[in-house]
Amino acid sequence: QTCALPISAYLVFEAVRDGKLKYVQMITPTETVRTVKTDESRMFLEPGKPASVREMTQGLIVQSGNDAALVLAEAVGGTETNFVMLMNREAQRLGMKNTHFANAAGLPDPNHYSTARDLSILTSALIKDFPQDYKFYSQKEFTYNNIKQPNRNRLLWLDESVDGIKTGHHSAAGWCLMASAKRGDQRLISVVLHA
User: Of 156, 157, 173, which Cα lies nearest the Cα of 165?
Assistant: First the structure.
């Protein structure tokens, strides 16, 4: 999951920048959110209960919300299938040559893969292309639907220079971490996969 949610966020940031979405815009989740299993990371969106693009972006980033990934994918791409095509097109444009996405949340799939180098390219692009939006990654907690969840990147509490980016885990990928820190004028990026 670590490799899909940041590219999903990149496409949301792009849609907001280009005026296709607004952070204040309300979107009503469909029954699609019920397909997220209870043991998966989610922000607890409910079908028929509107949430703002800003809230869902925070849920996607802070809470690793797979339900938010699905709703935002539909908002940006019309369908998750179309959104996945956008993910792969953007990955190629960024130079992620050894990456292929199969779904918006990054759930296990044989056609879903990436490398540490490609994910470092994505991390660098997020920081460079969307510095204002990147600040979501340093948010330590987020409450939605009366459920407060901490950011899963525990480095935010351990090192004040760390300002992102993402953790992830599933059976196929193991434990993964994309981390970034700003120390003086130097930006450091680290990617650890399959730990």
Answer: 156
